[in-house]
Write a structure and sequence with these properties.
The complex is a heterodimer of chains A (294) and B (493). Chain A is of the alpha/beta class and 294 residues long. Chain A is built from 10 helices and 11 strands. Classes of the chains: A alpha/beta (294), B alpha/beta (493). At the A-B interface, β9, β10 and α9 of A face β2 and α2 of B.
């Protein structure tokens, strides 16, 4: 493993990922051969089940032998084994620079982990960097051989500029007619309609994973007095008198954001994981693989 | 010091400047610049806060406090604060001063010549301050509240006259009646629009005045502090016989009250007026707010009857007027009466029988010649002289019966009259208080005695010059057989 790779994925982390890769299941409709069972049942070789014939079914798929034995027309259903793409949309806006360690570092490592899990299962992994729209749209990497390239792309992510996650996600959906895993790694500090965009992704058959990266200072800001808060992305100034009621109102808004994401995940059978920058990542990846909703 | 009032309340409008001052403080905030990942949540949070409170929290800053304080003081200065004493312009004022006995109590404030000021002194001082504060054109009256209300000076604008009336007030040994004084003041002021009654008192009332519901504002200014006072509230001096020794004894009954909040030790003494010799003394322990009866006694000598007694509770306190009581030694249980006639064995029999019939009379007889030589006659004894009129008569009161015609003790005794008519008699004199001469007529006067026909026998009674006439007869019809008229006199006494 190269130096870059070892910076993103240390050996212990890789060992954990090797264990977890077998449990990774992508519930997306996709095409091409691969190790994943897609939700869409198709015509590949692996028999799954019989089901009664219904008007409109393809007559070519009737199991005539079974019909001869039972006298009832039934169809043979095969599990489709298709190659899926794990698309990782990583937030590369300036807000990701904050935190200790910076949120962008955590986002890079989680993106690398998701890419590793996909590539290690001979799937394809594609890294998209989101800023004010689609900043970087890399070509998908395939198999373990594509891992170094993928990690280099991850390592090249810089946190700068503004955010428009909705625009970025919509752009990804336009360029990806075949659904797959769509992981969004971001702090979601975006006033745009991100949930609507992700909803469109879910409707298109993408299997959504939302990774919410939060810095400790954002969860528990230690401010007191009068401040002119400058937005790191837009430069906008907001004057706030930090007192107990102001901090309480902020905490409620942050809690509301998490709650919205959690509700979205439950509604669309997506995974939602909230990651603090100062917590170890192995349990986080485990929760992603387990498709938990925090 | 009176209650603070504002002569120009409009000056308080300056306080309205506090509003822009505070707004400036709300707006003028130096904020620390801080770069944050995103202001998106903060904007939302701020919107939530703004929905709850339109203004941000005003932080207490020293500069804001100082500026607000300066503004408040400026507004107060413009509104011309003053005490009521100096705000009497355009009003008619009645100053009621309590001059009851309790106002003579000393205070803990030293006055002139080292003398402690009394409550009345302080009340007068306050009243004079009020008068000094009167603006030209303001009328004031002064009412003295003693046992009765007295207008010391009617409504007047001359502050010198008003002040003189105040300065001339002295405490009286009476219970004050503030209610009457206030009612009188209200009655005099009720026709005026801007009128006020100010009462200066120590607040100790025998009958607390009702100041509610009066048509004129009444303000009570209390002077003096509560004091521990011990007082003699009742005395009674009687004479009687000691049941054991059967000897005559004078007993003084006193009721002593401790009005203080703490127990007091006191000594009650009795002595003759003008004498330092103590006749009797008792030591008392007086619980607070309790009445303690005391009996002091002594055996009188014949010369003690009628003498003044001083009853004193000591040590004296801040209100000495009720620490001393005065009484008089009453007469003995029997009145000594000396019947004098030219011949002591030939005195009027009816007169002797009449006097002897009174069990309260100790009758003794003496000749007129021996009367002047009698040395041990009680000064309170009654001397009855029958048929003579000596010039030197000892004893107390004198009754001359059947005086000889001519001068008698400065009275010219005229000839006797027959059947004199009584035209009037003195009813106000103590000696005639229970006597009526209605229906009394003189029927017959014989030598040496007066025969009574009907209810009683009347005669002309004439007093010596300087004394009151008790009975005035019709001289024209007055007759006397033998030696003349009856008169009662107290020669030279």
């Amino acid at each position: 493993m190269s130096g870059t790779q070892s910076a993103l994925l240390d050996p212990d982390f890789v060992r954990e990922l090797e264990v977890l890769r077998r449990r990774l299941e992508i519930r997306a409709r996709a095409g091409g051969a691969g190790e994943h069972s897609a939700r869409r049942r198709g015509g590949s070789a692996e028999f799954q089940e019989h089901r009664p014939y219904a008007p409109g079914d393809d007559l070519r798929r009737i199991d005539w032998a079974a019909y001869a034995r039972t006298g009832e027309p039934v169809l043979k259903v095969f599990r489709s084994e298709e190659e899926v793409v794990a698309r990782v949309v990583c937030d590369g806006s300036a807000s990701m620079r904050f935190g200790e360690p910076p949120k962008i570092d955590v986002a890079r490592r989680i993106s690398a982990a998701i890419g590793y899990l996909a590539l290690a299962k001979s799937e394809r992994a594609q890294l998209i960097v989101a800023g004010e729209g689609l900043t970087t749209h890399n070509l998908p990497q395939r198999g373990r051989s594509g891992l170094p390239g993928f990690l280099r792309q991850v390592d090249a992510i810089e946190a700068e500029g503004g955010t428009d996650l909705a625009k970025a996600i919509d752009a990804v959906l336009r360029r990806s007619p075949r659904p797959g895993l769509l992981a969004v790694v971001s702090d979601f500090l975006d006033g745009g309609d991100v949930l609507a965009a992700m909803g469109r992704g879910a409707m298109a058959g993408h299997d959504l994973v939302l990774v919410h990266v939060v810095a400790h200072d954002e969860l528990d800001p230690k401010f007191d007095g009068d401040f002119a808060l400058e937005d790191a992305e837009t430069g906008a100034i907001v004057e706030v008198t930090m007192d107990a009621s102001a901090l309480e109102a902020y905490a409620l808004r942050l809690m509301g954001l998490s709650e919205e994401l959690r509700a979205f995940a439950k509604k669309h059978r997506a995974c939602y994981v909230r990651v603090r920058t100062d917590e170890p990542l192995e349990p986080v990846v485990r929760r992603i693989v387990s498709r938990e909703v925090d | 010091m009176g209650k603070l009032e504002l002569l120009l309340p409009k000056g308080l409008w300056l306080l309205a400047l506090l509003v822009p001052l505070i707004i400036l403080y709300i707006l003028k905030v130096k904020r620390k610049r801080l770069v944050v990942p995103s202001t998106w949540l903060w904007v939302s949070a701020k919107r939530d806060l703004l929905a709850k409170a339109p203004f941000r929290k005003l932080l207490a800053q020293l500069s804001l406090i100082l500026q607000a304080l300066a503004l408040i003081l400026l507004a107060l200065a413009f509104s011309r604060p003053s005490t009521k004493g100096s705000d009497l312009s355009g009003t008619r004022l009645a100053i009621v001063i309590d001059v009851s006995a309790s106002m003579g109590a000393a205070t803990n404030e030293e006055g002139e010549a080292g003398r402690m000021k009394t409550r009345l002194d302080k009340a007068k001082s306050s009243a004079l301050d009020l008068v000094k504060g009167l603006t030209p054109g303001t009328e004031a009256m002064v009412v003295e509240a003693g046992r009765d209300a007295r207008i010391a000076t009617p409504l007047d604008r001359d502050t010198r006259r008003i002040s003189a009336a105040i300065e001339g007030m002295t405490p009286q040994d009476v219970e004050g009646d503030l209610g009457t004084a206030v009612a009188l003041s209200v009655d005099r002021l009720k026709t005026f629009d801007a009128a006020r009654v100010i009462v200066l008192t120590d607040g100790y009332f025998a009958k607390p005045p009702s100041l509610e519901g009066v048509s004129v504002p009444v303000e009570v200014l209390t002077v003096g502090d509560p004091i521990d006072n011990v007082a003699i509230v009742r005395t009674d001096v009687r004479s009687g016989a000691d049941p054991k020794t059967k000897q005559e004894e004078v007993q003084a009954f006193l009721l002593v009250v401790n009005y203080g909040a703490a127990p007091r030790e006191a000594y009650v003494t009795m002595r003759f007026d003008g004498s330092d010799d103590v006749l009797a003394s008792r030591r008392l322990m007086l619980p607070p707010s309790e009445k303690v009866p005391v009996v002091l006694s002594f055996r009188p000598t014949p010369g003690d009857y009628g003498r003044g007694l001083v009853l004193d509770v000591s040590p004296h306190d801040a209100m000495p007027v009720d620490d001393v009581a005065f009484a008089r030694v009453p007469a003995g249980d029997r009145l000594p009466v000396l019947l004098a006639a030219p011949d002591k064995d030939k005195a009027s029999g009816w007169l002797e029988r009449a006097l002897a019939s009174d069990p309260g009379v100790a009758l003794s007889r003496v000749s007129v010649q021996d009367l002047a030589a009698q040395k041990d006659i009680d000064p309170g004894a009654l001397v009855v002289i029958d048929g003579a009129c000596p010039s030197d008569i000892p004893g107390g009161d004198v009754v001359v019966v059947h005086p000889p015609e001519g001068d008698c003790l400065g009275v010219k005794v005229g000839p006797a009259s027959d059947k004199p008519m009584i035209t009037s008699w003195e009813t106000g004199d103590a000696r005639m208080r229970f006597l009526t001469l209605d229906g009394v007529a003189i029927a017959l006067v014989t030598s040496g005695e007066v025969e009574v026909e009907g209810a009683a026998t009347g005669a002309r009674a004439t007093l010596i010059p300087g004394c009151a006439v008790l009975v005035t007869p019709d001289e024209g019809s007055l007759r006397a057989s033998g030696s003349g008229d009856l008169f009662v006199a107290t020669p030279g006494r």
